[in-house]
């Protein structure tokens, strides 16, 4: 019994990152319970875990054991845990589960979580699950699924409290206390007219401080930050961040209240968008995950590597133009990569700042000229500083002062070009409606390599 108690309450602390699946013997105990179909042991081990920890456990289990764990736990399994999984793992589990098991689990979810799980399935599986839900449940989920991907309509929760303005505060409080099926978590009561058009909202703290006989219409506050269901989720996340919102109402094109967005959903959006941008800067598809297959990852990375190969061939062609000079002075070949590498790093720094500023809308046409001028000055300043350093290093290594002057001039030119390329290329791509995070890297690399090689070898050819 001692061993079972320890597994049911795995140790917590920084050394385990609060992840029970990292506890020695924990996953093995779960696998053993699944193999022996010991439901009581499974419940003792898993029932008290947070849904995030359950998701980590599912990812740690062998693939065949994942759906078996869910089926054995039955109604004790919280399908919210599936929202914390990588898309590939989640889809594999859903496809392996019986349809009725998925349907029963979906009924217990908030609408936003149910939509999040459904949207990654193919149309046939999606329709099969929807067809087994009741008409009101199916209609609510289908309405959200009909909105564009990565829109507020896909993220919103359709469970909310909306009441007419003539209700009194006392009626509202009684309604909240006595009515079953209300949202588990909410921060305000929305006030709507007979056609469900939004008049505003009453925060719960104000509701509790107002006399029971007061009508909602007398204490309602017009919502200044109303979200349209078709708004891009990244734009909505920016509004939440800018105005420190906890929740926001979502309306359709007719101004009718159709849902609510809460800060926990927006945190997920911010994380997803930042993750996509970070991956894109490295030439990785935004939806690539650790659980993806070998072939999917290989295909998704091929295009980026192909662009870099083309850029490398262009740089190689520039080098070949100065083949005679390289044969006469071996030092040029030794020093040439330094200029290109320094320019590449400087260009990447500027590009990273520019891409992130464009994503957060901090870089706009109104301040673009000032930012470009600043980056150029930074590039020139760093170019001069490193030019002096490299001139001294080259003179010390080769004893040729003229060679130091050549690499110094090339360093200044390339770092200035890197600064301009790092800011202008993302701006141009953004103007052309091309994601600068995805496309900027190969162009900036090509510019710094070509300019670096051409400047260094060209100046050396003329100088010597």
UniProtKB/TrEMBL annotation:
Assembly information from the UniProt record: Homodimer.
UniProtKB keywords: CBS domain, Cell membrane, Magnesium, Membrane, Metal-binding, Transmembrane, Transmembrane helix, Transport
Major site of localization recorded for this protein: membrane
Biological role stated in the UniProt entry: Acts as a magnesium transporter.
Membrane topology term: Multi-pass membrane protein
Compartments where found: Cell membrane; Membrane
GO CC, one annotated term: plasma membrane
GO molecular function, one term: metal ion binding
Name of the protein in question: Magnesium transporter MgtE
Signal peptide: none
Domain CBS, first and last residues per copy: 220-276
UniProt source species: Ancylobacter dichloromethanicus
Parts forming coiled coils: none
InterPro entries for this protein: CBS_dom, CBS_dom_sf, Mg_transptr_MgtE_intracell_dom, MgtE_N_sf, MgtE_transporter, SLC41_membr_dom, SLC41_membr_dom_sf
Region (Disordered) residue spans: 1-24
Similarity comment: family membership: Belongs to the SLC41A transporter family.
TM spans (from-to): 302-322, 376-398, 404-429, 441-463
SMART domains noted in UniProt: CBS (SM00116), MgtE_N (SM00924)
